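User: Batch of two.

Assistant: Item 1 of 2:
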Amino acid sequence: MTQRTESTDPRPSHGFLAEVKDAVTTRAALLVLGVLVLQLAFITSYIGAFHHPKPSEIPIAVTAPAAAAAEQSVKQLAALPGKPLDPHAVEDEATALAQIKDRDVDGALIVDPAGTTDRLLVASGGGASLSQALEEIVGRAEKARGRTLRVTDVAPADQGDSRGLSSFYLVVGWCVGGYLCAAILAISAGARPANAARAFIRLGALLAYAIAAGLLGAVIAGPVLGALPAGTLGLWGLGTLVVFAVGAITLAFQGLAGVVGIGLAILLIVVFGNPSAGGAYPYPLLPPFWRAIGPALPPGAGTYAARSLAYFKGNDAAAPMLVLSAWAVAGSAVTVACAAFRRGRPGAAVGSGLPDDAPSDAR
């Protein structure tokens, strides 16, 4: 005699498709699809920016004892196929050197009509790949004219700064900290703050984190590793601004789009910002799209400013600092405005399994 046993599963089985729907919700499937799009955008952006660096209109000063000789060299360099250089004549070597130090040009050709050897001034602190490109392009042009070239690096990258990339990696690290800090606030307390007061608290917490992250990054890059010769105070200020700007952007995206805002921040900073930052390949070597957007995004502005502080005495750092400040102000304003508009309707914490508009504890 057999006894009938009852199933311990309180839910009746409706087949495999029903199990799939229970395991992967429509919202989760859409988020996964968004991750796939983000991944493909990452691959496209990085390969598109780096797979074929091509010099385009690199600014270079040209000078010679006689103005006519300088102008002739300018015409010859400007006529090179593909327009790799953007040459212009200057009064003398001192003026050319000053323009390099001010970051108005990336190199200078000093022509000696009385001999057969000219000099090229470069600044590898602004990017080793850029100075090497200048050497190659001008060297070929000089050889075609039956002349030789002697290269002088007037702003060399520090011994501990391999190929001038330390500034880029430092800024990338600061950017990662900025959007991760903002994302953690969403994970722990809701993607959208409950009110304007809570938004200000989040921004205050972000600022405290930015100050600490900026200081520690500057100390590691400078005194600890000896990678950058810039003063700690200058890098500290830059780092604080980079971290806060990126974090404020992430908070703003979260205020506008909830959890999806984290993905939007990654799209802007990582997918578009990092390959266009001028790190491995400075702007004149990047394709037009990345060259155009790079200076307007935090990674590019931060990298350019860090190199200016490290190797050019802070010259031409004002513009990228203004770019970072604009992102910080705009991100903060949008964050507060979104919180005030929602009036006590906080978004669900990331990972809670609830929709963004579902009730959750106001934090």
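Item 2 of 2:
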Amino acid sequence: MAAGPVPYRVALVSFPGVRAFDVSVITEVWGTDRTDRGVPAFDLRRVAADTTPVPMRGGLSLTPDRTLAWLARADLILVPGLDDHLTPAPEPVVEALCRAHVRGTTIAALCGGAFTLAQAGLLDGRRAVTHWNLVDLLRAHHPCVTVEPDALFIEDGNIWTAAGTAAGIDLCLHLVRTAHGAEAAATIARSMVTAPFRTGTQAQFIEHPTPRTDRDADALASVREHALHHLHEPLAVADLAAHAGMSARSFARHFAAATGTTPLRWLLDQRIAAAQKLLEHTDLPMPEVARRTGFGSEITMRQHFASHLAISPRAYRASFAAHASGSSESGLTRNR
């Protein structure tokens, strides 16, 4: 009998002081078997200098099941944030991360995990992000790092860093999306009851509606719903503003305050996500995918895929197309 595909190997690096929340996020995304829902098999291992239980805040502990030698087998290495952001990682951990980087393994740090990567020198001369409240601390202790003050997650040289708390979920889902496709990430997001698609360029925090702005928030939600049902149509900011009953300038300001991004950036992200879904689940010709998602032409769609996903639509389909039916509809509604 032929052996099945090798599961995607993920290493959770642990040492005393790592945050229980980040450990839980990593475990929830990669440590839960969702193969019955079409998600690829993952092999998550908790890796440390030895297999002694790792203490965490609140009386919790993490029991490693592999030593640092397992990093040589990992496809992805994840470094949780820290309870004390200046906690030094043990030297064996630092050395193992450096060796993994030399091998070309993707490494991602959540929240204050950026301090661990900076300690290892892996962020020197690179762009990185951390929790907005830790930006100055990271800059002060690691001046060779270019710390971005306002992003959810970024990548530089196959090293990913994420902002605080929920942004770690966003980065983990993005890493799933990058390696396994949008539908796998969306399936995991649904099971976690979280947003399936927040781009790294969004602001770390947004202004929450107050009683005085509830009506504006409702109008903006209506606009986003309208846009999602009319992606195949040309949609300008003026059109969206008119739907909300606002001037274009006021609409753009309120939209950014509510979502952390601009209307055009949000619209482009939705078009890309819709195109990914069509490419994964239908055999529609490229021009039709471009038309249905509002890109207008295959050339324009290809340019945006290259810019945002570093892959062409055809290559994306070849990598992530579902095996299900080959139907040109596959349960998706045709836009008329």
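The chain is about 45% helix and 10% strand.
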